[in-house]
Design goal:
- There is one protein chain.
- With 242 residues, the chain is an alpha/beta fold.
- It has a single domain, classed as Rossmann fold, CATH 3.40.50.
- It contains seven helices and eight strands.
- It binds NADPH dihydro-nicotinamide-adenine-dinucleotide phosphate.
Length: 242
Amino acid sequence: MFKLENQVALVTGAARGIGRRVAESLADAGAQVVLADFSDWEEDITEIGKGIFGVRLDVTDPARVKEVVGNVVQRFERIDVLVNNAGIVRDNLLIRMKEEEWASVIATNLNGVFFLTKEVVAKMMRKRYGRIINISSIVGQMGNPGQANYVASKAGVIGFTKAVAREVASRNITVNAIAPGYVATPMTENLGEKAKQDLLGMVPLGRMGSVDDIANGVLYLASEEAGYITGHVLNINGGMYM
Ligand code: NDP
């Protein structure tokens, strides 16, 4: 598999689910990985495992994002890989959707990606190297009823990825998105049994995605070997959307 020795990675929303597995897999490849999440861990960067560090971060808070990114660079001297993974859902039909449901999803899923990327890109530019991987969603490409807020945020992430990819390519920084399909995580475990079966019926490969399926894609896009790929949206969805 791909090697990330001597590299430093920052993964948001990494306390559980996809982010957690992504962070572990980057660490297994040899990177020092800082896991940032909303409610877990201390304010200061704290070692929680071999090559794995935790820090408390709310991605919707730009001042705190700046502080954490500064602290990571102060401690590790660089950030080679950024994985913008933190995301939330607040599902409702459009006519019932409250402003708060709209605003909170945009704040976390889209504004958070902007705040993190802006701070980290500035550090990557100085090193003339970087890999940014934004976790979008299949629904950002195909739409989904009851998720106008979430779909808008995830489609926004794809547009943002392509714009920034063009902006920073000359500095040897790649920016890509991953669009997962239906993955078994705490985010999806509350779906009803019927909804799960209906979703599964739409997946040609006939199973839910695993956190490993997504982590393998992130590891590839984070690797030096993926250096000629930028502005790409990698579908990891079992064929649910082609
Ligand atoms: P989970 O809900 O399992 O995990 C998300 C993590 O993000 C949680 O640890 C959560 O912390 C954290 N988080 C939420 N808000 C913030 C914030 N403001 N700042 C920092 N951390 C935050 O989600 P998944 O692992 O399922 O999803 C990960 C990403 O993949 C998301 O962007 C999601 O939209 C995307 N995705 C998931 C799919 C799926 O089927 N699971 C499909 C397509 C895309 P806390 O628990 O404390 O709130």
